[in-house]
Amino acid sequence: MNKISEIGSTFFAYLKRPDLYPELRRKIWKNIFNRSSGLRGKEEAEKWCASLAISEKDFIENILKTPFVPFEKLFPDEFASALQAQAKAPVKMGGAGSLSVIYYINEFANAKKSIETGVAYGWSSFAALASLVSRNGTLYSSDMPYILQNQSEDFVGCVIPEKYRNNWDLFRFADKESLPKIFAKSDSFDVVHYDSDKTYDGRLWAYNLLWSKLKKGGVFMSDDIGDNAAFKDYCEKNNRQPYIIEFDGKYAGVIIKD
């Protein structure tokens, strides 16, 4: 599909979904007036991340003060089944992030209510729920539909084990529509995991809002923070102490709320 055809197909796909019209308006505005937002400050962000980065193991053992066992070894049967579920999915969505970090920050916070933005196959959801279910907690998830892939909605969260699904509450809108709906159910959270709108402006909007809903002693995490300078600038402006974790050539940022 060439670029013009893709734009046309995307536009008409949105027209069939009145519930997504607010996001369509935002996408039109971003593509016309704010196309550089996704990569703003990327070079300085990557240097900053590289200068501070530690491994998953170092973060979990030295900061969270717990022995490190990789997530896939903690839940080998569930993990193997999740890989099979992803392999069977006929649509392409985002891959897994740092599952071990996601699991252990929920353990560290003794989380009963967690929120994430961005689901796709549901790897991060799986990792969070593996911790939450032990306390009968709830994961609230916001995920924008994959508008050009007709079957995608059937496979969002497909790797999440069936036994965890009663503890999962999924909202299928853009964050600006999903988050108010989630906050109507719960106004505070033990863990925040951000992995949706990757633009500079989109991140800063969400960071400020989600931080205000995070409990004292809770944990804030954002993926792919080397893509632009949003996380760096947010931390510096608000005097936050971040931990930068490197895995698979990417960076995640974590902040523990004092």
Supply the CATH class: Alpha Beta
**Portion in strands:** 15-25%
CATH homology-level superfamily: Vaccinia Virus protein VP39
The quaternary structure here is single chain
Largest sheet: 8 strands, mixed
Succession of helices and strands: HHHEHHHHEHEHEHEHEHEE
CATH fold name, please? Rossmann fold
What is the global morphology? globular
InterPro entries: SAM-dependent_MTases_sf
Pfam families: Methyltransf_24
GO molecular function: methyltransferase activity
Keywords: Methyltransferase, Transferase
3D architecture notes:
- 46% of the residues lie in helices and 17% in strands.
- The mean pLDDT is 88.
- The protein is α/β, with parallel strands linked by helices.
- It has a single domain, classed as Rossmann fold (3-Layer(aba) Sandwich).
- It is built from 12 helices and 8 strands.
Entry keywords:
methyltransferase activity; transferase; Rossmann fold; 8-stranded mixed beta sheet; about 260 residues; globular; single chain; 12 helices; alpha/beta; Putative O-methyltransferase YrrM; SAM-dependent_MTases_sf; methyltransferase
Quick summary:
The protein contains twelve helices and eight strands. It is an alpha/beta fold and 258 residues long. InterPro entries: SAM-dependent_MTases_sf (IPR029063).
